[in-house]
């Protein structure tokens, strides 16, 4: 894939509240072999670094989780020259000690989605068929996701949360469900019994696709609720959409401030292994 003179080095997925982060913003439209991205991509500057921003659900939140064009979104970022992706997501807590308003810096995920195949949830560019712009796409690739998130990015985020005294959890396993519905109490109880920490509908397949394209990826979960409630605590009610929006909006400034500081503190050169995994995966 030929990058467009690296129009951006860092990509951010998020909601429309992030638009005002960017200085000297310009709008770009990118065609991909996988259809159009969720929306137009905004490119601008934050702390002297060139940033590409894309609302993963679309500017008007028109795409539900299972209809987001994930492959187009990641491909478009790569085409622009993006090397690192910061991905804030709203999550539900499965544990009493992970509270609404906390941040969770994910180190593992469990994929519980099910609409795979050649649709929006497709989680690989490697189907053994040639695709323009995708290196080795005609081959088979068995990519390692034992450590799915970029270690360098995770450390930067964790260190900043410590410095800024932001309530956070340095590790966490996110279980990603299909959506758009929320969990039943039985499902939520099962997920918690497995030792998983938080729950979300969009954190997969972004991370897998980023790894295939050699991009670093960090998932920052903002806890908005307790999913279907906590067993033994009847005062905590099952999540509602209104609750998610309310808590997320209350913490939107905190998320933006965190991302701003992350960008300013990212080393210019990558010292992680993220861009090397693909070469090791090709058969």
UniProtKB/TrEMBL annotation:
GO CC, alphabetical: cytosol
EC number: 2.4.2.1
InterPro entries registered for this protein in UniProt: MTAP, Nucleoside_phosphorylase_d, Nucleoside_phosphorylase_sf
Site (Important for substrate specificity): 183, 241
GO molecular function: S-methyl-5-thioadenosine phosphorylase activity
Positions of transmembrane segments: none
Entry-linked Pfam families: PNP_UDP_1 (PF01048)
Binding partners and assembly: Homohexamer. Dimer of a homotrimer.
HAMAP family documented for this protein: MTAP (MF_01963)
Family indicated by similarity: Belongs to the PNP/MTAP phosphorylase family. MTAP subfamily.
Stored NCBIfam families: MTAP, PRK07823.1
Protein name: Purine nucleoside phosphorylase
Lineage: Bacteria, Candidatus Kueneniibacteriota
């Amino acid at each position: 894939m030929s990058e467009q003179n690296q129009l951006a080095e860092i990509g951010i997925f998020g909601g429309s509240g992030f638009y005002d982060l960017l200085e000297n913003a310009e709008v770009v439209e990118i065609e991909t072999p996988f259809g159009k991205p969720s929306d137009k991509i905004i490119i601008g500057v934050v702390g002297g670094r060139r940033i590409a921003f894309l609302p993963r659900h679309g500017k008007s939140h028109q795409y539900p989780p299972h209809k987001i064009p994930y492959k187009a979104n990641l491909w478009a970022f790569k085409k622009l020259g993006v090397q690192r992706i910061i991905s804030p997501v709203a999550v539900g807590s499965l544990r009493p000690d992970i509270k609404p308003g906390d941040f969770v810096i994910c180190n593992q995920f469990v994929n519980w989605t099910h609409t795979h195949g050649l649709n929006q949830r497709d989680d690989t560019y490697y189907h053994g068929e040639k695709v323009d712009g995708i290196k080795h796409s005609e081959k088979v690739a068995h990519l390692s996701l034992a450590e799915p998130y970029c270690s360098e990015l995770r450390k930067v985020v964790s260190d900043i949360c410590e410095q800024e005294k932001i309530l956070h959890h340095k590790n966490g396993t996110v279980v990603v469900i299909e959506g758009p519905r929320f969990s039943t109490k039985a499902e939520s109880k099962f997920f918690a019994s497995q030792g998983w920490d938080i729950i979300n509908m969009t954190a997969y397949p972004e991370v897998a696709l980023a790894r295939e394209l050699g991009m670093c990826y960090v998932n920052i979960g903002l806890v908005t609720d307790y999913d279907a409630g906590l067993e033994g605590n009847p005062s905590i009610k099952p999540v509602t959409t209104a609750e998610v929006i309310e808590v997320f909006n209350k913490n939107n400034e905190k998320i933006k401030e965190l991302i701003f500081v992350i960008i300013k503190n990212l080393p210019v050169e990558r010292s992680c292994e993220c861009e090397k995994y693909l070469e090791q995966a090709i058969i």
